[in-house]
Amino acid sequence: QGQVVESGGRLVQAGDSLKLSCAASLHPFSDYAAAWHRQAPGKERVQVASITSGDTFYYVDSVKGRFTISRDYVNNTVYLEMNNLKPEDTAVYYCNFRIFSANYWGQGTQVTVSS
């Protein structure tokens, strides 16, 4: 219980697309709110997208129209589809699940966007 593993980060060029995955061993998976955060070098970690247990979505302004968060209830996985990537999207991306006072984080996956 409580294992969260991100994958999919890699080096891409500006304008490319990339899809991150986050698998979680949390039950019941549907009760957890999920979010993607990112931390760029020398900066604080910020939330970029989230989805509640009731499927309410949130996106930070800088990624609206480019990023899409989704969840697969069969495979207990959350995705972050990123389109039209920009160099400023370069960061370590972390997946987070929360319910009440419990928070579960993954180890992060590096996304690097070259210009």
Strand and helix layout:
Layout: E1 4-7, E2 11-13, E3 18-24, E4 33-39, E5 46-51, E6 57-59, E7 67-72, E8 77-82, E9 91-99, E10 102-105, E11 109-114
Parallel strand pairs: 2-11
Antiparallel strand pairs: 1-3, 3-8, 4-5, 4-9, 5-6, 7-8, 9-10, 9-11
3D architecture notes:
- With 115 residues, the chain is mostly beta strands.
- Helices cover 0% and strands 53% of the residues.
- It has strands at residues 4-7, 11-13, 18-24, 33-39, 46-51, 57-59, 67-72, 77-82, 91-99, 102-105, 109-114.
- Strands 2, 4, 5, 6, 9, 10 and 11 form a seven-stranded mixed sheet that branches. Strands 1-3-8-7 form a four-stranded antiparallel sheet, with no helix packed on it.
- It is globular and about 40 Å long.
- The model has no long low-confidence stretch (mean pLDDT 95).
**Average pLDDT value?**
95
N→C terminal distance: 40 Å
Query: What oligomeric state do the depicted chains represent?
Result: single chain
Task: Please give the share of residues in helix.
Answer: under 10%
Number of helices: 0
| Helix and strand sequence | EEEEEEEEEEE
Backbone CA Rg? 13 Å
Biggest sheet descriptor:
7 strands, mixed
